């Protein structure tokens, strides 16, 4: 079944909308406690927030050993800020990832990836904030570019590529073929006519045929 739980955390500031407001460390802690029986479960915290560094300590405490802190590249002022945040995240005991919006080129994050501090790239195939959007084809281009970069950097071969937004059985197969290691789906799973488990099975089947 599913191996990662992707938790979108919005503060209503980074994405300026009162509708883009979700939850904080206490809810994350409760989710982690509910997942404690699954030893290999990973809680991917997608931090669509202003000044994400403020949340590192609280989220590390909330997730324990299960957490990965995924920050938005666009929330950083420059590469040095991103490297410092990634350093703080790993020092706090979490794994670190970086997410890029549809309009951000994949090359923008090469410098961060070269440090070895981030072990995941979240390629957004939709604008962050709202479910049910259409998958943007530009995500496939970025996945191929990042896979090519990874293939050319043996010391960074463990970097995982994640695609997020608009994922269904059809786009999952194409994203997997383009290089996605992890598929994030919301609407497709929770509105699947045969239920959540069938939705998970459909995505696993689609990705297996890459």
In short:
Helices cover 37% and strands 19% of the residues.
Spans of at least 5 consecutive residues whose pLDDT stays below 50 are: none
Mean of all residue-level pLDDT scores: 92
Helix content: 25-40%
Rg over CA atoms, rounded to whole Å, is 16 Å
Main sheet: which strands, in order across?
1-2-3-4-5-6-7
Number of helical stretches of at least 4 residues: 8
What oligomeric state do these chains adopt? single chain
* Main pleated sheet: 7 strands, parallel
SSE-based structural type: alpha/beta
Distance between the termini: 18 Å
Proportion of strand residues: 15-25%
H/E series, N to C?
Answer: EHEHEHEHEHEHEHH
Report the principal-axis shape.
globular
How many strand units? Answer: 7
Describe the structure.
The chain is an alpha/beta fold and 210 residues long. It has eight helices and seven strands; from the N terminus they run βαβαβαβαβαβαβαα. It has a seven-stranded parallel sheet. β4 (95-100), α4 and β5 (120-124) form a beta-alpha-beta unit. The protein is globular and about 45 Å long. The relative contact order is 0.11.
């Amino acid at each position: 079944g599913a191996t990662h739980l992707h938790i979108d955390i919005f503060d209503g500031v980074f994405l300026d909308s009162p509708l883009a407001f979700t939850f904080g460390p206490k809810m994350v802690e409760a989710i982690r406690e509910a997942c404690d029986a699954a030893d290999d479960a990973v809680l991917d915290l997608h931090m669509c927030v202003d000044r994400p560094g403020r949340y590192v300590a609280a989220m590390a405490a909330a997730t324990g050993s299960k957490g990965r802190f995924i920050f938005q590249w666009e929330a950083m002022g420059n590469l040095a800020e991103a490297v410092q945040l990634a350093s703080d995240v790993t020092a706090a005991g979490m794994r670190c990832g970086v997410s890029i919006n549809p309009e951000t080129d994949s090359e923008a994050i090469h410098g961060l990836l070269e440090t070895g501090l981030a072990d995941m790239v979240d390629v957004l195939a939709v604008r962050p904030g709202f479910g049910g959007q259409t998958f943007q084809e530009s995500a496939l281009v970025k996945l191929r570019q990042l896979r090519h970069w990874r293939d050319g950097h043996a010391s960074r071969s463990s970097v995982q590529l994640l695609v997020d937004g608009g994922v269904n059985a059809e786009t999952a197969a194409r994203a997997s073929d383009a290089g996605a290691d992890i598929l994030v789906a919301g609407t497709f799973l929770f509105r699947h006519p045969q239920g959540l488990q069938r939705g998970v099975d459909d995505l696993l089947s689609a990705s297996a045929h890459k």
